[in-house]
Amino acid sequence: MNLKTGNSSNGFTPEISLDKLHRMAAELILPGRSILRLLNTVLEFVTNFLARVLGSSLIRRHFHLLLSGLVLFGPVLSFWVSKYSIFANSNHYLYRKFLRSTWGWTCIFTSAFIILLSLSVRHSTSLSLRHLSRVGLTGLLWWSCQRLLTLLEDAAGTCYEPMTPGQDGQSPASPVQPLLLLHEDQNKASCLKAHMLWRGYEVSQDVLILCFCCLLLVEEMCVFGHHLERQKPLQRSPGTPLRVVFLLCVLLLLVWMFLLLCLLAYFPKFPSQQLGGALGYLGWRGLYHGLYRLGSRWGCPGLPREGLSTTVHTNKQP
After folding, report:
1. Taking each helix axis from N to C terminus, what angle separates 2-54 and 240-266, rounded to the nearest 10 degrees?
2. Which residues share a beta bridge with 162?
3. What is the pLDDT of residues 266-317, one digit of tens each?
4. What does the alpha-carbon distance between residue 206 and residue 203 come to, in Å, rounded to a whole number?
5. What is the CA radius of gyration of the chain?
6. 75 is a domain residue
7. Residues contacting residue 278 through CB under 8 Å, at least 6 positions apart
8. How far is residue 18's CA from residue 15's CA, in Å, rounded to a whole number?
9. What is the pTM assigned to this prediction?
10. What is the pLDDT of residue 207?
11. Where are the transmembrane segments (predicted)?
């Protein structure tokens, strides 16, 4: 009797368990699919709205004015912000993880957006590489600008070592400021590393790269709205990866603007920050309104919109 019971249990239990597993999987898949559809709908609505905003003529033509006003009048906020805020700490997580690698984050997200956008329009490696070369030229310009600014700062500044009261012969209670011992063989990096005092003219490289990356992101992303309009007559929609990367680029733009506002409000340095913003604007102006407008005839990668509209027209033909 036990054997029969054991055989029956061994024969029918796997079937019952499989049925239960199938039912449980079906019950879990149906809500999961509905959640994915809802998230996809929200993603399409948000990305379509952001693409429409960034692609508007108001943003494309006047965003640099908004950024210029932020750089010029942002230090005024230092009179109202609290010195005990978490953003007043230069070792904050945002400053350590994002500010010190601004170009790296911008390069990764912008390159991913350019590749996905060019592949969604035309499966052409040459087109993707041509548009991707804009990021390479921008990185080369930023590297050259860093080296040049470092050389100018080393040439225009001097390193001083503050002397203690025992070294300069003054009494500890003397109200006179301590003497400064000149070190002519030190550059800025080695001087600050030795905890000495550096005095000279400088340009804020943080404000420079933040302004430049904000302008670059807007210039590259504003073409997404144009791409959506071109895809409507063909009843085609960009894939989810392209929309997700576009949304991440918008979030990155907001992070850069927030960090720029924090630098101007909590760490105001006039006029080095304004000089950095001006150089960032000139770099963007020289590339996107000068060099890239020459087209592929001169070996230039061209503007972000080039190669998109012509492809759509050729796809309309039977």
Report:
1. 60
2. 180
3. 999 988 999 999 999 999 999 999 888 887 666 788 888 887 654 434 343 4
4. 9
5. 29
6. no
7. none
8. 5
9. 0.81
10. 95
11. 63-82, 102-121, 244-267
Cα–Cα nearest to 116, from 131, 106, 105: 131
**In which domain, by residue range, is 207 found?**
114-161+179-303
> Rounded to whole angstroms, how far apart are CA atoms 288 and 222?
13
Structural domain includes residue 8: no
Nearest to 288 by CA among 134, 105, 136: 134
The CA distance from 184 to 34, in Å, is: 69
- DSSP secondary structure letters along 12-50: HHHHHHHHHHHHHHHHHHHHHHHHHHHHHHHHHHHHHHH
Domain count, the chain: 1
Token pair for residue 98? 């994002």
**Displacement of CA 225 from its chain's centroid (Å):** 19
The three-state secondary structure class of 165 is helix
Which parts of 55-180 fold into alpha helices (H)?
A: 57-73, 93-97, 102-121, 125-156, 165-168
Residue 318 inside a domain? The answer is: no
Residue 78 included in any domain: no
| pLDDT tens, residue by residue, 25-56 | 666 676 767 788 888 888 999 999 999 999 88
Tell me how crowded residue 130 is: count the other CB atoms within 10 A of its CB.
Answer: 18
Q: Which residues pair with 198 in a beta bridge?
A: 159
- Residue 9's pLDDT band (cuts 50, 70, 90): very low
Question: Crossing angle, helix 272-286 and helix 125-156, to 10 degrees?
Answer: 150
- Give the integer Cα–Cα distance in Å for 156 and 297: 41
Please, is 27 exposed, middle or buried when counting C-beta atoms within 10 Å of its C-beta (0-12, 13-18, 19+)? exposed
Q: What Cα–Cα distance (Å) separates residue 233 from each residue in 49, 120, 315?
A: 19, 16, 11
What DSSP state is assigned to residue 267?
Answer: S
Band the pLDDT of 2: cuts 50, 70, 90: very low
Distance in angstroms (rounded) separating the CA atoms of residues 76 and 138: 31
